[in-house]
Amino acid sequence: MANILITGTTRGIGLGLVRTFLDQGLTVYAATRSEAHADALVALGATHGDRLRPVFGDLDDEQAPQRLLAALGDEALDYALFNAGIYGPSHQDPAQIDTRATGALFTTNAITPLRLAQHLAPRVVDGGVLGFTSSQMGSLALNRAAEMPLYGASKAALNSLLRSWAERSAPLRHSILALHPGWVQTDMGGGQAPLTVEDSTQGLARVIQAHRGHALCAFLDYQGETLPW
Ligand SMILES: NC(=O)c1ccc[n+]([C@@H]2O[C@H](COP(=O)([O-])OP(=O)(O)OC[C@H]3O[C@@H](n4cnc5c(N)ncnc54)[C@H](OP(=O)(O)O)[C@@H]3O)[C@@H](O)[C@H]2O)c1
Predict the structure, then answer these.
(1) pLDDT at residue 49 greater than cutoff 90
(2) What is the distance between the alpha carbons of residues 184 and 113, in angstroms, rounded to a whole number?
(3) Most buried residue, 5, 35, 119, 190, by CB count within 10 Å?
(4) Which domain of life does the UniProt lineage start with (predicted)?
């Protein structure tokens, strides 16, 4: 049976993805910030046994790639999904943001996913899939981030780094997917969001698995629709 590494799995979309892939029989490496906030994740271990393999630690740490590689041991990955993200300051105003908050936002949302992916890609099987939870807010063409410009800019930076990496890596051995999960009922998405975590994660799981064996770079939503960069 296949396996997947998922980041940002204490809650929200990441926790939902862990549940979805465990229910489908995959082994899941769940990269999680801290055991102290991981009750819901740890509870999944009770029903899915050793197919759930938590790896604890802040993903922005410089040692995070080595920690994940050590957890994999000799295993190759079929899929990796870099999902962890933050919203940034609630004011979303470039005039107010300080250097520390700027660094945290762009590091977590854009740099860390690429750092981890570049270290882990050699361990992903040929034809495997590397997915990144982006957002339609990162689309320059759609221009939908007026109310959340800092967050949107961090996802645009993620998309830009993905496209540059894909270009440098041609011909691709894997699919590299920027994925918009929809507007989802999570701590980040809020209670008025139209989509449940389950609807989003089941769609994302279908999209990721449908790209097994296709070596391409694309920006897709949770229903598989192409989004403009
Ligand atoms: N919800 C939406 O409508 C929506 C729409 C478009 C895109 N997205 C994207 O989807 C992804 C998941 O969003 P969500 O709504 O599920 O958010 P969420 O409920 O706020 O959960 C975010 C997750 O990321 C983890 N995380 C953040 N920084 C981390 C770090 N440095 N190290 C380890 N874990 C870290 C959090 O861990 P802790 O619990 O330890 O903080 C948490 O598990 C994000 O990339 C987000 O930008 C969401």
Answers:
(1) no
(2) 21
(3) 5
(4) Bacteria
Give first-to-last CA distance, the chain, whole Å: 34
Pocket of ligand 1 (CB under 6 A): 8-14, 33-34, 37, 58-60, 83-86, 108, 133, 135, 181, 183-184, 186-189, 193
Q: What is the pLDDT of residue 32?
A: 97
State the Cα–Cα distance between residues 162 and 82, nearest whole angstrom: 12
Does residue 94 have a cis peptide bond before it, meaning omega lies within 30 degrees of 0? no
Percent of the chain residues past pLDDT 70, beyond the cut: 100
pLDDT at 37 > cutoff 90: no
Ligand 1 atom 45 nearest Cα: 85
- Tokens representing 213 are 């064996």
The CATH class given to the 68-221 domain equals: alpha beta
Question: What are residue 4's DSSP bridge partners?
Answer: 28, 79
Taking the centre of ligand 1 as the mean of its atom positions, its distance from the CA of residue 211, in whole angstroms, is: 23
